[in-house]
Amino acid sequence: MRVLGLETSCDETGVALYDSEAGLLAHRLYSQVELHAEYGGVVPELASRDHVRKTLPLINELLAETGFSKQDIDAVAYTAGPGLAGALMVGSCIGRALAYGWGVPAIGVHHMEGHLLAPMLEDEPPEYPFVALLVSGGHTQLVQVEAIGEYILLGESLDDAAGEAFDKVAKMLDLDYPGGPRVAALAEQGDKERFTFPRPMVDRPGLDFSFSGLKTYTLNTVAKHALEDGLPDDQTCADIACAFQEAVVDTLVIKCRRAIEQTGFKTLVIAGGVSANTRLRERLEEALAKKGAKVFYARHEFCTDNGAMIAFAGCQRLVAGQEEALGIKVRPRWPLDTLEPLV
Ligand code: KG4
Ligand code: ZN
Predict the structure, then answer these.
(1) Cα 136 to ligand 2 centre (Å)
(2) Contact between residue 194 and residue 239 where contact means Cβ atoms under 8 Å apart
(3) Cα–Cα distance between 301 and 210 in angstroms, integer?
């Protein structure tokens, strides 16, 4: 089955063609970063309008590149939630309309299930069951994954998501949006020994997270060292970025290790934008190797939002016979553990 996947939940328009036999055939991504940069964050209305402009041309490019035509597409998968309501509506309306016009089934995919399954697109995919750490701009969750659609939430952030904390710290340091990769790059110039930031909630049992206190601590440190222009000197900014990243990474590592101990599983999957963070990958690999466990993640471009993960996740469900009745329903809020298993 050849599936067209569409991702439009936030600020990236992603399209992809995934074949249940041949694997990923091609994908295209258009990032709205420049559009939102001057506002320092995503403006939902602008995001929706840009998805309207970009989705169909990207699908045409994808078809031209692969040499396939609309007759070769067996089904359409689109992100139905969670995400920005207007942005989700664009992908859902286009996905539904194309499927209706082509006379093929369509399915609404859960964005975080897409992230969670993205490492399956790699040459050495993880095997079930595993623990998944989902770390994106909107989510920080630890999930016990028995199979596709069989998700048990082990813990989650009680306030800010890890990616959101990275983005907010970037703003404090006057770095451009999107902040996560910029804070990570600046942290490389920092001195790990200079500041030690708190590791939130690690002294309590359980697998929940909280990043808002760490964010305030970071803000206070910036204010304490600020010069006349409101920012600390360059080296201090780098040291702060480094201390912040170390605190987030350490906290995530401690909780992942705990989840692996609790479940007895030997596989950890990390997914979502923050799973692109090199320091997080290194530290998790090191910590879990000591427990005989292995860490899996997607290639960089499939850690952040993309169409390939949606085409893949949709394909698994469509091949299992799932599809949805006509009608367009988006779910800006959609708990992952309410999804149905494949059979
Ligand atoms: O998964 P994603 O593309 O979108 C959501 O579903 O939210 O994740 C975006 C988040 C942003 O907060 C971004 O700053 C963060 O992932 N991010 C990173 C890195 N790359 C992206 N955070 C830390 N280090 C990175 N290298
Ligand atoms: Zn995402």
Answers:
(1) 6
(2) yes
(3) 27
